[in-house]
Structures are given as C-alpha cells and as structure tokens.
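#struct-help
A.M.: can someone run this one for me? Single chain, 330 residues.
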Amino acid sequence: MTSKLKTAFAALVLVTGSIASAQTLLNGSYDVAREFYKDYNAAFIAHYKKTTGKDVKIDQSHAGSSAVARSVADGLDADVVTMNTSTDVEFLANAGVVAKDWAKRFPDNASPTTSTMLFLVRKGNPKSIKDWDDLIKPGIQVIVVNPKTGGNGRYTYLAAWGYAKKKGASDLQAAQFVGKLYKNVPVLGKGGRDATTTFLQRNIGDVLITFESEVVSVNKEFGEGKVDAVYPSISILAENPVAVVERTVAKKGTAALAKAYLDYLYSDEGQEIAAKHAMRPRSQSVLKKYASTFKPVQLFTVQEMFGSLSEAQKVHFNDGGQFDKLYTVK
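D.P.: on it. Structure tokens below:
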C-alpha cells in the first residue's frame, strides 16, 4: 500500500470510527413540543460538540404524552422522556423504568418549563369567546384532547373544573359545568397535534383549548392570521416534567449524555429557546425578557385544587372516574 493510500485509509477509518462512536439519544415527548425540540436539539448538539468534542445524534418520538409513556413502558428505548404531566412520569416510575425520586433529580420538580391552557379561536373571534363560561353555551363546538390519552386533555379538564371552583361552585356544580362543556365537544383529539389538525385542517369547532406554546406552532405551520389567542380569566399552571429512562441508559451506556441533555434545558440558551416557543421559562430573567409573550393570567396549581396530579388521576381519569361519568365517547 502506498503512503498516499495508507493516509487515505487511515482518514477513512477515523471518519467511520467517529460516526460509529457518535451516541444516539431518543427523546420520547408529547405532541405539542415537536417544534421546540427541533430547535433545542440543534442547539444541544452544537453545545455538546463544543464542550466535549463528541458528536451526538438526537431522535424524537412524539404522540399524546400518555401514549408515549405507554410505549416506553412497553419497550420503546427512549433515553429520556420530556412530558407535559407528571402522572405520565409517575406511571414510568411505578413501572420501574424511571427512578422513583425522578422529581428530585433536576431543579424545579424536574420541570424546566411550565405552560397554561388558553383558547385558540378563528380569526376575529366570530363567536366572541372570552372565558370558560362561553364554552358551555348552546351551539359552541369545543375541540379538546382526550384526557385518557394526553396531558393536554387532562390539564384542559382540570382547568375548567378549577375555574368553576374558583368562581364559587361546589364539586357537584363543577361536575355539571364540566359536563356541559364536554357536551359541546364533537370529537376528542388523541394528542395536542391531532386536536390542532382537527381544528385547522378539518375545520371542525369554534375553539381549540390547548397549551399556550401551541400558538407559535400554529402560526409557523398554518400561517399567521388563522387564529386569535384568547386568555381566560383563570387557568391552570402546567409543569413540563423530564426524566432519564434508567432502563434504557443502563443498556445503551448513555446515562451521562441523557443527564447533559436534560441539564441543558435549564441553561440560559435552553430557557431562551423555550421562551421563543411560548413555553414559560423557569429563569426569571428570561421570563422578564419575554414579558410580552406571556400575558398575565390568574393561575392556580394542581396541588392547590386537587391535592396532586396522581390524586386527580384517581378521582377523574381512571376508568369509572368523573370523566367517564360525564362524557360518553361519540
């Protein structure tokens, strides 16, 4: 072999070696976070290369958060899960897939961002929808996610229930209020993106209840000016929890990479990208910078109104719970 050939061969070995050694990380995440993680992953890959000299490839798996959690429990080899409700991470912890103390592994209950539920209405708000009371009026069609399959749907249901309670309703009256709202639901979305597609592509419904962050995605994907965002007077604080999937990282040897990936969500750059996608950052300085994005709204916590998401799950969303009593799948 000539010296030129030897050099070329050595370079080829080096390149293929580095490609082979590039670790791949799979993030199992909820529907509405799709665009955020596209941008975040690019930033993290650059940051990881700069700080460690190593290449990394990030893959995404998206669906309703509960559907993702079930897939991971059933064997999907996600290295991390980034969810929109802690009950889905708890489910994985109970399945022995995620650490029992997952909420203490990262700051802020392992929730680097938060969100809230608001209303997307058609441009110009032809039905004059301003608050939760408008959603129970006759003839209003409301598009929501099925609370059995997505955290988006659970937060919508709990936000409506909490609104009624905050306005002085008893539990019975709150159940009646939420029941009336779901009578105006023509079809349940499987996840946040499915509900958005129903509203904008299939043109069904007068109002879509979804996460604040979906406004940015809708404008990007469907074009500016299709919808108006309406902030109700009262809504719910939704935490977006994250966790390392211990089963996968032990098998793949990706524990350090998975931790670095989730840690970076708390960095200034990670928080900034979140804010650009209308996910409320934990960083007060970034939040202040994006004050015009995050309109003031009276927020209540799940703990304050329902004890915990696990308690709410048992009472409202488990089979035979309150949701089953007030909604019959059409």
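A.M.: thanks! The chain has 16 helices and 14 strands.
D.P.: also worth noting: Confidence is low (pLDDT under 50) at residues 8-20.
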